[in-house]
Design brief:
Blueprint (H helix, E strand, L loop, with lengths): L2 E4 L5 E11 L4 E6 L5 H6 L1 E5 L4 E13 L2 E6 L5 H5 L5 E5 L13 H4 L3 E4 L4 E9 L6 E6 L2 E6 L5 E5 L4 E4 L5 H5 L4
Parallel strand pairs: 8-13
Antiparallel strand pairs: 1-5, 2-3, 2-7, 3-6, 4-5, 4-7, 5-6, 8-9, 9-10, 10-11, 12-13
Length: about 180
């Protein structure tokens, strides 16, 4: 069932976007910012914010991979006409329902904005964005040397200190000089 309101969802994370309806039974084709459907399923319910700003809460029935997208079934959304109303809608979940798998895993919103420095204390800049790739993410830091691309692998990223607001890296030879360029 849906619960409707106007505006922003308090303490929620943007987890995806509705591309368009799929089929005649109210399925939504979803572009996910999460790596798997597990985040939607674990949340139990999602908030859809339409282009007009209207927010509706729905219980998640199922989420399945489909090509580069997910197909999401929501309780009460049972026709293509109802699903069409959410074309382009943003999908949010409550922050507290999401959990990381281990101590070395972080949500993007937790690390974007942290200061990046080498293990020797050399400041490299602020982590501004993350580029997902098939093998591993690439973290983009902007600072005094310009933009630096950092592979998010254990050999390079040595410590993420959320409380201290910083990331410590051990750059492999040439990483900083090769990747630094003007922003």
């Amino acid at each position: 069932m849906s619960e409707s309101s106007k505006g922003f969802i308090a303490d929620a994370l943007l987890l995806g976007k509705v591309i368009k309806p799929h089929g005649l039974r109210g399925l939504l084709r979803v572009w996910s910012y999460a790596r798997s459907e597990a985040s939607f399923l674990a949340a139990g319910s999602v908030f859809l914010r339409s282009a007009g700003g209207e927010v509706d809460e729905y219980t998640v029935v199922s989420v399945k991979p489909h090509k580069k997208f997910f197909l999401m079934a929501l309780e009460g959304l049972d026709s293509v006409e109802k699903a069409e109303a959410y074309r382009g809608a943003e999908i949010f979940v409550k922050r507290e329902v999401l959990r990381t798998e281990g101590e070395d895993e972080f949500f993007w919103h937790e690390i974007v904005g942290l200061q990046v420095e080498t293990e020797q204390g050399e400041p490299l800049g602020t982590l501004r964005r993350i580029i997902p790739t098939a093998g591993h993410d690439i973290w983009v830091a902007e600072g005094p040397r310009g933009e630096i691309l950092i592979p998010a692998v254990f050999e390079v990223v040595r410590r993420v200190d959320l409380e201290g607001g910083r990331v410590l890296i051990r750059p492999v030879e040439g990483l900083i000089d090769l990747n630094a360029h003007e922003v």
